[in-house]
Amino acid sequence: MVGTNSGDTSADSAGSGDEFAVIERLRARFERAAGTHMRGGRPLDAEVWIGDDAAVVRCPAGGSALLATDLVVAGVHVDLGLCGLDDLGYKALMATVSDLAAMGGRPDHVLVSIASPPGSDLDLLADGVAVAAEEAGCVVVGGDLSGSPALVVSVAVSGSLHGSPQLGPLLRSGARPGDQLLVTGPLGGSAAGLRLLRQRRDQGIASRPSAEESELIRAHRRPLARLDEGEVSRLSGARAAIDISDGLVADIRHLARASDVGISLDDLPVAPGSTAEEALGGGEEYELIVATGDAGRLQHEFATAGLRPPIVIGRCTDDPGRLELHGDPLPAGGWRHDLG
C-alpha cells in the first residue's frame, strides 16, 4: 500500500488539488447539470447524493437503492510487490461494499471494470473478486475491460436496506451532542500489516510469520467490510456511522463536520501488534465508527447477533470546533489524495 496506510500528516490541508476540495467542486458542477433536467438539481426527501459513504436514490417502482463505487489503483492503493493480484481484487470489492456497511445496508449486484497492462493475470485477480463477493453475499453481474499502462480496478455496487424498512440508512450527518461513539473493533491492523510486509521484504525475512503477525498481514491484504455490524447498528437505532477507510482521525472528522458536532475521545483501541499512530491514521481496515444515543442497546444487539462487542471510544459534544483525544487536540493524520 502506497496510499491510505501511509499516515500522511497533510490530511488537514485543503488546497485546490486536495481530494475533498475537488469533490466539493465536482458536486456543485454535477448538481448544476442535474438542475437543467432533474428536480432542480437537488435530491428528494430520503435521497442522499454526493457527500456520504453511499448514495441513496428512490426507485421508480418504490423503495430506495444504495449506490457506491470505488477505485483500486496498483501502486497507489496496493503494492503488488507485497500483495497478490487476488488480494487486489478482494480489496477492490470489499472497499466498495464497506460503504454500504456504513449505511447499514447490504450489497446486491456488482459491476467490476478492469484496466490492465498486457500480461496481467486477470484470472487470479478475478479469484479475489469472487471470494470477496461470496463473503459479502453479492453477485458480479457485469463490467468492462480495457488496456492501460497501470492496473486499475473499478467496482460499482447497488444495495438495499433489509428489515424494518421504515428505518432509513445511517448517515454521517445523524450524530447529535451527547451521543456515544463506538468502533466495531480495534484499530491499526491494516497499517501494521503493511509495515510488517515491508520489513520482511526489506530485511529478507523468509521465516513464517507468527500468529499475531499473520493476522495483521491478513488485515492488510484482505480487510473485511463490517456488513453485519452496520446492519445491526441501523436496526438498533444508531444515529450515524462511517467506515474507517482514511484513518480514525480523518474519518471521525468527516462525521463531526457532517453532523455539526464536536468530538471528545477518551479511548483508542489498538489492535495487538499495532501502534497508536497506526490506529489513529492507518486506515483501510473498514471498521465502523457508530454514533448512538443508547450504547447499551447497541452492545446488547451485537451480542445477540454473535458479533464482537463494539468499543466505546468517546462522545459527541455541542462544540463543533472542538475535536479532542484525551483532552488534547485531535492530531492530524489519515489520508487524502493530492489531485493538484
Quick structural summary:
The protein is an alpha+beta fold and 340 residues long.
Break the fold down into its secondary structure elements and pairings.
Layout (H helix, E strand, L loop, with lengths): L18 H16 L20 E4 L5 E10 L11 H18 L3 E11 L5 H15 L2 E9 L4 E9 L19 E4 L5 H14 L8 H11 L5 H9 L4 E4 L4 H12 L2 E4 L10 H6 L6 E5 L2 H10 L6 E7 L5 E3 L2 E2 L11
Parallel strand pairs: 3-4, 8-11
Antiparallel strand pairs: 1-2, 2-5, 3-5, 6-9, 6-10, 7-9, 8-10, 11-12
Helix content: 25-40%
Low-confidence stretches: 1-13
Widest sheet, order of strands = 7-9-6-10-8-11-12
Determine the N-to-C terminus distance: 21 Å
The arrangement of helices and strands along the chain is HEEHEHEEEHHHEHEHEHEEE
Shape: globular
Report the oligomer.
single chain
> What is the radius of gyration computed over CA atoms, rounded to a whole number of angstroms?
19 Å
Q: Tally the helices.
A: 9
Strand-residue fraction?
Answer: 15-25%
Q: What's the average pLDDT?
A: 86
The total strand number stands at 12
Q: What structural category do the secondary elements indicate?
A: alpha+beta
Main beta sheet strand tally, sense and closure: 7 strands, mixed
